[in-house]
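Homework-ish question, so no full write-ups if that breaks the rules, but can someone show me the predicted structure for this set?
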Amino acid sequence: MENPLAKFGIKAAPSSLESDLAGCKAAAKKIGYPVALKLVSQQIMHKTDAGAVKLGIRNEYELSAAHKELCRIGRGLRSDGFLVQKMARNGIELIVGGKRDSQFGQLILLGVGGIYVEVLRDVTFRVCPITKKDAHEMMEELRSYSILSGSRGSKPINKEKLASLLVKVSKFLLSENPAELDLNPVIADHRGYDIVDVRLIK
Amino acid sequence: MSSEKKIKNLYAVFNPKSIAIIGASRNPTKIGHVVLKNHLDGGFGGKIYPINPEAEEILGLKCYPSVSAIGKKVDTAIISIPSKMVAAALEDCGKAGVRGAVVITGGFSEVGNAEGEAELVRIADKYGMALIGPNCMGVLNPASRVDSIFLPIYKLGRPHVGDISFISQSGAVGGCIVDLAARAGLGMAKFVSYGNAAVIDETDLLSYLEKDEKSGIIVMYVEAIRDGRRFMSVARRVTKKKPVVVLKAGITAQGAEAAKSHTGAIAGAAEAYKAAFKQCNMTEAESLDELFDFAKIFYQPRAHGRRIAIVTNGGGNGVLAADSVVKNNLELAQFSDSTTKELIGFLPPYATAKNPLDLVGDADAHRYESALNAVMKDPNVDAIVAILLFQTVQLDSSVVNIVVKASDLRQKPMVAVCTGGEYTELHRRILDSYGVPTYPSPSSAIRALAKFLEFSKKHPK
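A: Not a homework solution, just the prediction itself:
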């Protein structure tokens, strides 16, 4: 799968799209366990809601079981295959997104991500382009900023790396002018982040 | 036409030495009559030429059949005639060298008559005219007394000269703004309602007011911005020189419904505007009340931090204020040792020298004076909220002078809170007119203060 974000230095966690179990096994071996396995289908918008994501797969045995389960879920759906992905780090789930606005052009979003984005609505926007300073201000504006800064014994996330990601995304948005973009979730911890899922709408 | 020329020609609209009122009427219920009468009653100092081919004289002024028939220089034309006739009148103005036009007449793009409006744009462009409207209320300048607001002075008050300028897309909201500003005793530099924005739009007005020395604060009411990027580049520049308070109406979820992503689902037009205002360092208000609450606080000297001192003669109101301080991410100041000592020196034994500083129910103007002096010089205090409950026996009008005097030192931003009925309301207005921003509740006062401190932080001076 060609990733147009890659040339802007925006890299999703290593992954491979496979059509069958043998391919999944080979890919998992190459990427290294633990992995996540996802059923990819244009008919599924939110994978988690559909049960199409299996996490923390530690070996070939568990991979086979997960594959079997996803095949069951995928019955009757037009499927593009199975995505084997390096299991992301443990951390805070964020969302970084973009949208083309008719008045102001590209907007960039940072928020608390994962599957509850619309419910929590802890998000902030800027009109692109943004600077690193803007990126840091965006983090500070989130209600959950104290969680990003480390709470209950966890280390603060690497804000500098997240700020660079935001600046890169802003550059990507201005250059490619997509209708919508989701990097969700972006899982961040004190070392950095993993971009787990990318949704780009041209 | 270069946009610079038309922006320059806005000077003629706001400061005309001579105006033509096209559509001046003998009928007192017609807009053309009210506009003429408002200029006469309002004391407009320049020449006034009523244009009406069917009248000899209106309100004692000689009428002319057209602007070109006057044979003298006319700076600005105020046009209120049927929409079909506007283009011809505008063309005549252009030929006669009129630099500014206010087209009050509606019936153009707002009702689908895009062609009619395009014709006006073509004529304005040809002559480099600064055209405001069509479908607008136009301009008011309390200094030059130009006043195209077609609502009678006895029904809609006009503010005195000051340094707040208002830009309103809507005429109806604009009228309310003018009336409320007059009632609140807020001084006004310029007012403009620009309607369909066929030629002069919100961004042009913002860049004109940027250079207008009389305008210290700019307040905007907008429903839509024509060119978001151009607006941002101008607004960013303007806020480096003067504060801009903005109220955006019309929040639609349009577009968000069809979204295919999380981001798309959350990002409506409102979020884009909010982000843009923030990035331009504009102060966003969420209601008309807030527009005024925020506008009047920008007279205050810049603050250097966000530690708030609360001085009150009512304990509960002090607690409410302290709650608002926390809710708005401000801090309650910790009085310095020397302030505490000073406070203990004059406070009655049943009062506590702590923030919020409760001067208790028997506080008089003298106690307020000592307290305000003490907190004003405390290095741990960045801004002051003075709560005045006029309902007590001891507090009388003399405290107004004390508060005004403390505020006039211009050492730290200070706001006052007067909560109550008519007697209180009267004092609130007096304080406001003396330039002490005064609010009916602790929450409105502290929200405005928070917005001002946010601005102060970005623009230390």
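Now go work out the reasoning yourself. Hint: DSSP finds six helices and ten strands in chain A.
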